[in-house]
Write a structure and sequence with these properties.
The protein is an alpha/beta fold and 290 residues long. It is 46% helix and 17% strand. It has one domain.
Length: 290
């Protein structure tokens, strides 16, 4: 599918009012959960392995709540193509922004860590209105280059800069003497060439990214977690900032990685239905060294 067609589809759907988009989401839930059964085996396997202490009935409840929210995430992501600045600000309320301002006043860049929890995509747009300092969103390019370019164009509508993981060092070096805001979605599955560090995450041995820690130690910039928290009203969120590490150089190797992964796990355990369970997070296993 060409970029032009993709742009037309995104734009055409995104201009629909939220009320219609959520009707579409309700229909998608029925199709995805009851008809197609999209990635159900992966979702249920992930949930059972992550929460062996709870009953099958509770697992089914979490899965169903996840599948009810998942279509909301889809239509809200599409809405990013036309959502206005006012709508973004109204729908994502910021908490603890003094943490961000404090670091900027100290001349620091910010290593912001987040996860595939709740509507992390809307967080990109909300970040764009927080500060005039450079806003970098570190991401893993998709295999479909046309879709990657179209969706990144949507993500950067309000001034954020999408930076492929392999280029982050180059960008950080350019900004090393000035404040900036860099965001890492740190709960993705790295390939073996990107990391060899495993830790226990959600009751399973898990290969994790160490990129945020490496950049933090290289720059000695603080590590701040951003959690997107759903409000009771559909399509409305909080974005809460918590400083996890003030002085990265004072920490032992992998300690920062352990801290932000532990924070992520605690967030997921509170309301697990908002994490992206369709992702095959544990496909990388420890390899025996020859």
């Amino acid at each position: 599918m060409s970029k032009g067609i993709l742009q037309f589809i995104f734009r055409s759907i995104s201009i629909l009012p939220f009320s219609i988009l959520y009707i579409i989401s309700d229909v998608l839930f029925v199709l995805i959960y009851y008809v197609i059964g999209y990635r159900k085996k992966v979702v249920f396997k992930n949930l059972r392995n992550s929460f062996p202490e709870i009953s099958e009935k509770e697992i089914e409840g979490i899965a169903k709540r996840f599948y009810k929210y998942f279509p909301d995430l889809i239509v809200e992501a599409i809405k990013m193509a036309s959502i206005t600045q006012q709508e973004v600000i109204e729908r994502i309320e910021l908490l603890n922004t003094d943490e961000i301002e404090r670091h900027f006043l100290n001349g620091k860049g910010i290593i912001c860590v987040t996860s595939h929890y709740s509507n992390w995509e809307w967080g990109i747009h909300r970040l764009s209105f927080m500060t005039d300092y450079p806003r970098l969103v570190i991401y893993k390019p998709l295999n479909n280059k046309d879709f990657d370019q179209v969706y990144n164009g949507i993500r950067t509508r309000f001034g954020a800069t999408m930076v492929p993981m392999k280029q982050i060092l180059r960008h950080i070096v350019k900004l090393r003497n000035s404040p900036y805001f860099s965001v890492f979605v740190a709960d993705q599955t790295p390939v073996y060439q990107e990391s060899d560090y495993f830790l226990n995450f959600l009751n399973q041995e898990t290969l994790v990214y160490t990129g945020p820690e490496r950049i933090a130690k290289m720059t000695n910039n603080p590590v701040v977690f951003c959690e997107i928290i759903p409000k009771d009203k559909r399509g409305f969120y909080y974005a809460k900032f918590t400083t996890l590490v003030e002085n990265p150089s004072a920490y032992e190797p992998y300690e920062i990685t352990q801290i932000h992964n532990k924070y992520t796990e605690e967030l997921i355990r509170k309301k697990p239905e908002y994490w992206l369970w369709t992702h095959n997070r544990w496909k990388r296993k420890r390899r025996n060294k020859a």
